[in-house]
Write a structure and sequence with these properties.
The protein is mainly α and about 500 residues long. The protein has helices at about 35-60, 70, 75-80, 110-140, 140-165, 170-180, 180-210, 215-235, 245-275, 285-295, 295-325, 330-365, 370-425, 430-475, 480-485, 485-495. The protein has 16 helices and no strands.
């Protein structure tokens, strides 16, 4: 699945020879990178799985007295909700009270069937709407981006006006008013740069639509991540002292990042394959996934562990802040808050940097250190363009997610209210029936909102990875762009020459 690539260095691509070995630049061969990080990650997975099997085999996981023993011996800690056992013993178990505190409300087969059908309809509708947004973006990318940018500005202005009407003019609102000219200038910049973003978005949408199995790959990584969390919760029972929890927290953060970056790197590999080999290769998604999980796994684990360390220190800082709040120590709280804020900024920068570094890993099979060096060179030459491109597309996809989630949530709530109020709980009087129907409709609408947002996040997350990959390809490989994608090259050159020449994008 390496397209018969030789185990040699990458070769240059002459723009005059149409038969030049462009594929050689895509992936330099079967070279395992950062093996130590991959081995360490696999060892960590083995340890966590062994701990989970031990707790299941000994029955400790079902015994609530074995959870957080240090907290149970300290009344000040045992009352804190964060130290309550995740799993309760079945002895003396009593079901939780009904979420609807009305005696006439009962849940029977019709209610359960209706709830299941509603969930299935919401899932299907959410996925269909997300794919509809992507189809619209592929057909009219420039109008898609600019319309959603305008919608985002209208949403911000509406929120500002509502705040002013609700609270009146204050110092923060006056400061916001003073910043309106700057905001308008920034919005105009995004509006103009949307032309280049439209070119990148259109190509990314084409890749995602042509290789629909990337959705299944991303979903499989989500399921693997969820399964790991279940195993991790079982393994958490081995902690007998409070400090034992911290290594397990680090393992959870690291594994979550690795699973997420495997999906991101695989999508980037598929996009790079389409860029370098537009005529197509057999099973590009499977090939990219295999490369990611074998030769590039160490690089992914290496890059992920750096971010996991920062996140872990943030967890410790947050723990210190909570401890200071419990002891009412304002000085320690202030220090912990400052540390947490600083680490959050560092975390955001590293996470953003890693997204582009993993493109280098996916495209060329580089080790993480070399990928980071090359990404830094890219940042110095085209970092502003990358940030603006990401801002434009992220604002557009964010607006799509918000609009879809609100619409589907409202429709689900209205339909649920109508069904519940008309056919269910006939034993209730009019007032109780109205209250029960409103509670059920609110819960159904909120669940539909969350499900729709998660589905859109998965779909647009795949699209975002493809956008990042194609941006790097366009910037770093202009010769390949001109040779293999002359139409895209002409559109980008027209944009660089002047906005008026690129209106046909």
């Amino acid at each position: 699945f390496f397209f018969d690539l030789p185990h040699t260095a990458m070769l240059p691509v002459p723009t005059t020879d149409p038969d030049a070995p462009v594929k050689v630049r895509l992936f330099k061969g079967a070279v395992y990178q950062d093996v130590w990080a991959a081995v360490l990650f696999l060892v960590h997975m083995t340890v966590v799985l062994s701990a989970a099997l031990y707790t299941l085999g000994t029955g400790r996981v079902w015994d609530s007295t074995t959870w957080f023993p240090w907290a149970q011996s300290d009344p000040s800690l045992s009352s804190h909700p964060s130290f309550q056992p995740p799993l309760l013993s079945t002895e003396g178990f009593s079901p939780s009270p009904s979420p609807m505190p009305l005696a006439c409300v009962t849940w029977e087969q019709p209610q359960y069937v209706a709830a299941g059908v509603t969930g299935g309809v919401v899932l299907t509708t959410g996925l269909a709407v997300a794919m509809g947004w992507m189809l619209l973006a592929a057909q009219q990318p420039l109008h898609f981006l600019r319309a959603l940018l305008a919608g985002y500005v209208c949403l911000v202005l509406t929120a500002f006006l509502v705040t002013v009407l609700a609270t009146g003019f204050s110092l923060p609102t006056l400061l916001i008013l003073l910043c309106i000219p700057l905001y308008f200038w920034w919005w105009r910049l995004l509006w103009q740069r949307a032309e280049f973003s439209a070119v990148v978005l259109k190509r990314a949408c084409a890749t995602v639509q042509d290789h629909k199995t990337v959705g299944g790959m991303a979903l499989s990584m989500v399921l693997i991540s969820a399964l790991y969390k279940v195993v991790w919760v079982c393994a958490l029972n081995v902690a007998t002292q409070q400090w034992h929890v911290y290594p397990l927290v680090f393992c959870l953060l690291w594994a979550e990042l690795v699973f997420r970056n495997i999906a991101h790197t695989t999508v980037c590999g598929v996009a790079a394959t389409d860029f370098f080999v537009p005529e197509g290769v057999p099973n590009p998604v499977w090939g990219a996934f295999c490369r990611t999980c074998t030769y590039s796994l160490g690089s992914i684990c290496f890059g992920s562990v750096i971010l996991a360390v920062v996140q872990f220190v943030r967890v410790i800082a947050n723990s210190l802040k909570n401890e200071a709040a419990r002891k009412k120590n304002p000085v320690l709280m202030l220090i912990a808050c400052c540390i947490e804020f600083f680490l959050s900024c560092v975390e955001a920068m590293i996470e953003y940097f890693n997204r582009y570094a993993f493109v280098q890993v996916a495209m060329y099979g580089k080790g993480f250190i070399q990928a980071a060096k090359d990404t830094w060179s890219l940042v110095k030459t085209a970092g502003v363009d990358a940030v603006i491109n990401d801002l434009i597309i992220s604002k557009a996809t964010g607006m799509c997610t918000f609009l879809s989630a609100v619409f589907i949530g409202l429709m689900t709530g209205l339909v649920s209210f109508g069904v519940a109020h008309g056919n269910w709980w006939t034993a209730c009087d009019e007032h109780d029936l109205l209250v029960a129907s409103l509670i059920y409709a609110s819960i159904a609408g909120l669940v539909a909102f969350i499900i729709t947002a998660l589905i859109h996040g998965l779909v647009f997350g795949i699209l975002d990875s493809a956008v990042v990959a194609f941006f790097v390809c366009f910037v770093e490989e202009p010769e390949v762009l001109a040779l293999k994608h002359p139409e895209l090259s002409a559109q980008i050159n027209a944009y660089i020459a002047g906005p008026s020449q690129s209106d046909s994008v």
